[in-house]
Amino acid sequence: MTHTTIHDAQPEDEDAWRTLWQGFLDYYQVTLPAEVTDHTWARLIDPVSPLKARLALHAGRAVGFAIHQNHPSTWVMGDDCYLEDMFVAPEARGMGAGRALIEDLIALARARGWKRLYWNTDQDNAAARALYDSFIPSDGHVRYRLTL
User: Fold this and answer.
1) pLDDT in tens, 72-88
2) Which residues are CB-neighbours of 14 under 8 A, at least 6 positions away?
3) Residue 104 counted as domain residue
4) Helix or strand or coil: residue 34?
5) Is the N or C terminus of the chain more exposed, i.e. has fewer CB atoms within 10 Å?
6) Per-residue model confidence as pLDDT tens digits over 82-105
């Protein structure tokens, strides 16, 4: 098995990220306007934006991403890190990229003094939930999202 390396998304990663992003959208059967994807990419590489992406690479090829942002918390004396979107290309699943992305975010959050890392997933996503449960069991929260 090839070792997974992880780095912050850089401008030169745009094509690789867009390919992975499209795979993520396809998995969830979602179509977004091109302007939304363009805006997301611009924020991911903007140094002042809190929205960031980490890319997982196997043999120098991007195989996954973790989009995250940190924010103040009312529950701890410090910031939380929200893992908003994570995706590993189907052909790379089972090679440790998903685990490496989460472990990378844990290390990054600790290094930056963030207090908690949290995320959500579809309740029927058994493969992802098996990985997530290996870190921590679900806390039982249910997400509600109101589109405005």
Assistant:
1) 999 999 999 999 999 99
2) 41, 45
3) yes
4) helix
5) C
6) 999 999 999 999 999 999 999 999
Total residue count of the chain as it appears in this document: 148
Residue 145 belongs to a domain: no
What angle separates helix 97-111 from helix 126-135, to the nearest 10 degrees? 40
Number of compact structural domains in the chain: 1
CA 141 to CA 124: how far, in whole Å?
15
What letters, b where the CB count within 10 A reaches 16 and e where it falls short, cover 79-111?
A: bbbbbebbbbbeebeebbbbebbbebbeebbee
The CATH number linked to 35 is: 3.40.630.30
Span 10-20, mean pLDDT? 98
Q: How far is residue 128 from each of residues 13, 29, 36, measured CA to CA in Å?
A: 25, 17, 25
- Helix (H) / strand (E) element for 111: namely helix 97-111
Kindly report the pTM of this predicted structure: 0.92
Residues 6+ apart with CB under 8 A from 118: 80, 81, 82, 83
Residue 48 lies in a domain: yes
Write the single-letter amino acid at 118.
Answer: Y
Cα angle value 8/12/15 (rounded, 5°) = 100
